[in-house]
């Protein structure tokens, strides 16, 4: 793995795992979102690979990438079915065993109760020595071990997991974050104004993270930038654009460096 001070180039690779991507049945959008997210954090995406659900190929690619770059982000293959083998391959690449993480088992038990079968328990498997990557959207978390982050393949869930990846990355510039909360409006309503603001500020990262619960639904819109002045102006621009589109219940809920 590359190393050095914060002033040096920090690099990453993305490993996209899944037969459905290679067959064309599913169109990948994760690479674009990861590249934008890493860019805001001062990390250069240097390589991306898409490989099938074949254990040996995943292990080989992962070992090559993790020794070449500072970070590797994998997407896909951590679900409950037999072909979800990413956790197995990551563990093999690091020469460790998998175990059922008690925190994930507790989450799954709370959701499924007596219906927590062996297939669903597969999603609780984590390599020994690894840590969890939070999942603010739905389902179990991802995990990280060494310089590898293993995330879900579902785009909305993957983007949510990235929120817990960013603070762990080494970068040379402070990235500021602000969150605008929209309540009572779905992503279909906010998509157009959000896209317009994003296109007007291509150097920034704007993410939409939907939430659902007993108190209602909506989205948290997270804006990130190294320029605090541009960030403040963009937050105001986004709020105005949302209100102009008929979104009434919108407010900023946090401002943090």
UniProtKB/TrEMBL annotation:
Pfam (any one): MoCF_biosynth
Every MoaB/Mog domain range: 13-172
SUPFAM superfamilies recorded: Molybdenum cofactor biosynthesis proteins
InterPro entries membership: CinA (IPR050101), FLAD1_M (IPR056596), MoaB/Mog-like_dom_sf (IPR036425), MoaB/Mog_dom (IPR001453)
Name this protein carries in UniProt: Competence/damage-inducible protein A
Organism: Phenylobacterium deserti
């Amino acid at each position: 793995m590359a190393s050095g001070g914060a002033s040096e180039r920090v690099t990453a690779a993305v490993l996209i795992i899944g037969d459905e991507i290679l067959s064309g049945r599913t169109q990948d959008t994760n690479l674009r979102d990861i590249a934008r997210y890493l860019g805001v954090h001062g990390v250069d995406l240097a390589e991306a690979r898409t490989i099938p659900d074949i254990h040996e190929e995943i292990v080989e690619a992962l070992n090559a990438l993790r020794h070449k770059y500072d970070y590797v982000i994998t997407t896909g293959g951590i679900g409950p079915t037999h072909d979800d083998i990413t956790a197995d391959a990551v563990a093999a690449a690091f020469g460790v065993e998998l175990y059922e993480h008690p925190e994930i088992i507790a989450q799954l038990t709370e959701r499924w109760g007596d219906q927590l079968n062996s297939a669903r328990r597969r999603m609780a498997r984590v390599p020994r020595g690894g840590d969890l990557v939070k999942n603010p959207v739905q389902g179990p978390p991802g995990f990280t071990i060494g310089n590898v982050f293993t995330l879900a393949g579902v785009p909305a869930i993957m983007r949510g997991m990235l929120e817990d990846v960013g603070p762990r990355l080494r970068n040379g510039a402070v990235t500021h974050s602000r969150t605008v909360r929209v309540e009572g409006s779905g992503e279909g309503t906010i998509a157009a104004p959000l896209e317009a603001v994003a296109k007007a500020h291509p150097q920034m990262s704007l993410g939409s993270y939907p939430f659902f619960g007993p108190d209602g639904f909506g989205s948290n819109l997270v804006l990130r930038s190294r320029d605090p002045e541009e960030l403040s102006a963009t937050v105001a621009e986004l709020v105005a654009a949302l209100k102009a589109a008929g979104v009434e219940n919108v407010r900023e809920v946090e401002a943090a460096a």
